[in-house]
Amino acid sequence: MKQLNEFLIPILGLKLGKHQFEYQINNTFFDHFDYREFDHSDIKVKVVLEKKPSFLELSFKHSGTIHVPCDVTGEEFDLPLKGKINLVVQFGEQFNDDNEELLILPHGEHQLDVSQYIYEMIVLSIPYRKEHPGIKSGTLQTPALDTLKALSVSAPSTEEQQTIDPRWDKLKQLLTDK
Fold first, then answer.
1. How many domains is the chain partitioned into structurally?
2. 73 CB contacts (<8 Å, ≥6 apart)?
3. Which of 35, 54, 109, 130 is positioned for an S-S bond with 30, CB 3.0–4.6 A?
4. Contacts of 41 by beta carbon, 8 Å cutoff, 6+ apart
5. Is residue 170 part of a domain?
6. Dihedral of alpha carbons 68, 74, 77, 78, sign
């Protein structure tokens, strides 16, 4: 995978203090990671980097939407996403990213690639089960639901219940007379 230059933060020339970076993420970003789980994405990512004398603190936040099919009905909808992660960057002898909250860069490193952290933060914020919001509220109108309603068996009306053979009532009474 090639590096995405817009996600390289030059850390060598930064002054001490807070620095903000903003990125607009769409499907071309996910194409670099061969991730094609949704049709369209529109996500805004904010990165706050605080440079301190011996280490860096990074705070990542994202919010936006992805266009996905509903796992229940198959209808396409925009799923809102939101999330955040924190990362501490220290300098050491060799590169080490074994810990998800701590990154160790070699002493001579002059830039930091944040694309992998943005990718992981967004992908991990996608829920396992994606349900259309209209399902819970009962406002979802689709041709599939209309067909299901037309084919469903309705409960017997009160008039049909009155025409039931009276022998069934005697049998039901045996169950309750124990």
1. 1
2. 132, 135, 140, 142, 144, 145
3. 35
4. 25, 26, 27, 29, 30, 64, 65, 66, 67
5. no
6. negative
What domain range is 35 assigned to?
A: 5-136
Residue 61: how many CA atoms within 13 Å on its side-chain side?
6
Kindly tell me the burial class for residue 31, based on how many C-beta atoms sit within 10 Å of its own C-beta (0-12, 13-18, 19 or more): exposed
For the chain, the C-alpha Rg in angstroms (whole number) is 28
Reported confidence tier of residue 178, pLDDT bands at 50, 70, 90: low
Q: Under a CB-based contact definition with an 8 Å cutoff, are residues 53 and 16 in contact? A: yes
178, part of any domain: no
Summarised one tens digit per residue, pLDDT across range 93-141 is 888 888 888 888 888 888 888 999 999 999 999 999 888 888 777 777 7
Within 10 Å of residue 126's Cβ, how many Cβ atoms?
14
**Range 60-99 burial, b when 16+ CB lie within 10 A, else e:** bebebebebebeebebebbbebebebebebeeeeeeeeee
